[in-house]
Amino acid sequence: MPTHALPSSYAANYEARWPEVNTSTSPTHCAPISTPAFVSVCRTGSRWVRNTGAMRADQYLEHLSADGEALLVAAQRAPGVSVPSCPAWDMSGLLAYTSAVHHWVAEIIRTRSQRRPTRQFGDEAPIEWVLLTAWYEQGLSTLVDLLGSLDVDLRVWNWYDDGPAPAAFWQRRMALETTVHRWDAQDAAGAPEPIGAALAADGIDEYLGFVSGEIGQRPVPGFSGSLALIATDIDCAWTLTLAPDRLQCRPGREDTDAVVQGPASALFLWTLNRSASGLSDLEVSGDPAVARAWSAISFD
Questions:
Q1: Do 285 and 258 form a contact (C-beta atoms < 8 A)?
Q2: Are 42 and 230 in contact (CB under 8 A)?
Q3: Radius of gyration, alpha carbons of the chain
Q4: DSSP readout, 110-122?
């Protein structure tokens, strides 16, 4: 059966292809959101949101299922369009990539893998649209079922720990991965819906952890100042201190050089340097150069 040629192998994409961004009004790279390494917490009502995940397992699974189905609906609405937030792909490429993610993680859970899998799924994505959508549906359904029946003590491999760790890592990771690509698909089809506020705030926490860990290994010249991120619809905030080789993150709002605030969904997408279509929901105040400094991040 003919298969879909993805931009690169799934494992190389997912583990090594980080967000490449610039100062233009549209993103130049479509990257997975990563690593729950951030140690901050934020207040949402009377509850603390920590790097272990702000939501229950069943909530992550609900998002994975609903956003996964919505991604397919958007793809079927406009199967031939290009994806602005993922310029290397058209809609079939986005669908193939996301499904490769789902199949790959399902294989890790199913086999209870204790080491990095050698099997790659990107080259198995069918070219024909009908077969591709069926492959996507099968992969999503299998992943939801497997993640929904996890033994609480199960430990499997993941790319962040590079070894066995609680399998619940993948519940959070797949919910966030899928919701962002759902937004990518809907944006390409012309009708993007916001990401749920609680999930978006959790995604910000996770993504800041990636940046704080990665920037020390690959410094970013010109990355400096202090920046507050405020999710106005979920009462959650982060204070960031930027340096070329360091990102310090603290919960809550402090006096900073610049402030970016708005709904959690728009704020999350802004941190990912995605489309400008949601920026009208955000308010940027203070030193604009500091806010723009976020766009200087380029991990490629």
A1: yes
A2: no
A3: 18
A4: HHT-SS------G
Residue type, 28: T
- The secondary structure element, H or E, covering residue 248 is strand 246-251
Q: Which are the contacts of 165, defined by CB distance < 8 A and separation ≥ 6?
A: 155, 156, 157, 158
In the chain, what are the domain boundaries? 10-33+55-189, 197-296
Find out whether 29 and 300 touch, Cβ atoms under 8 Å. yes
Q: What is the DSSP letter of 278?
A: G
State the alpha helices, DSSP H only, in the chain: 10-16, 57-77, 91-111, 129-148, 169-189, 197-214, 264-271, 288-293
The number of residues making up the chain comes to 300
| CATH, domain range 197-296 | 3.30.1050.10
pLDDT tens-digit profile, the chain (300 residues): 555 555 443 344 444 333 322 222 222 233 333 333 323 333 333 222 333 467 899 999 999 999 999 999 999 999 999 999 988 999 999 999 999 999 999 999 999 999 998 887 778 899 999 999 999 999 999 999 999 999 989 999 998 788 999 999 999 999 999 999 999 999 999 999 999 999 999 999 999 988 888 898 889 888 999 999 999 999 899 999 999 999 999 999 999 999 999 999 999 999 998 865 556 789 999 999 999 999 887 554
Can you state the percent helix, strand and coil of the chain, rounding each to 5? Answer: 45, 15, 40
Domain 10-33+55-189 belongs to what topology? Answer: Four Helix Bundle (Hemerythrin (Met), subunit A) (1.20.120)
Helix, strand or coil for residue 260? strand
Take residue 137 and report the two structure tokens written for it. Answer: 């549906």
Q: At what angle do helices 91-111 and 129-148 cross, to 10 degrees?
A: 30
